Every structure is written in C-alpha cells, then in structure tokens.
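REQUEST ID: PR-0412
SUBMITTED BY: lab tech R.K.
PRIORITY: routine
TASK: structure prediction, single protein chain
INPUT:
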Amino acid sequence: MHIFKYSPRKGTKASQMTNQIDGKIKEERSRKLIELSNMNEKNFNESYLGKEVEILCEEEKNGYYQGHTKNYLLVWIRSQEDLENKIVKVTCSKVEKDHILAEK
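STATUS: complete
OUTPUT:
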C-alpha cells in the first residue's frame, strides 16, 4: 500500500475547494493506514511460513543472501556457498519486520 497525504497545489481546483481537511487529521489517518498496511504485510508474510518458495538471491549482507520471490517477498537465507544471482528453493521459517527468514 502506498500512503500519502493530499497537499494542495497552487493553481489547481482542489486547492481552492472549501472544507479542506486539517493537517492533524491527515496525519492521524496516514498513521492508521500505515499501521493497517504493516499488519496486512505481516499477515501475508506469515501465510508463507513452512512453505517452500523459490528466490533469486541478489546480494550477500552480513552472512545472509537477500532475494525476492516471484511475487516480490523479501527473503533472507544464511549460506556459506555463493548464491548470488542464483535461484534457490527455500523454506520460509520466520517473519521479521521487513523480510522473511528461510532455510535451504
């Protein structure tokens, strides 16, 4: 989900409309939508726990290869072998804040 607050642009019809929403209300609405988006992402990622997926390993950082599934899930896998630019089958084992940990 991409969330952004409306901000009036000079010269547009919308900027001249009455009953503009207060900035504090926009902030609160954005915060709630971001929370909802984060919860939905976590639930979606958790639905992959225990499942086997293929990832394209893109780069190694701090002992983990980071890659994406065909549907753009970010997955990390620890490996001693060079997996860069390789497609590997992994099993999703744990959901972290912004990615899924997996095992080969």
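NOTES: Residues 14-46 form one domain.
REVIEWED BY: pending
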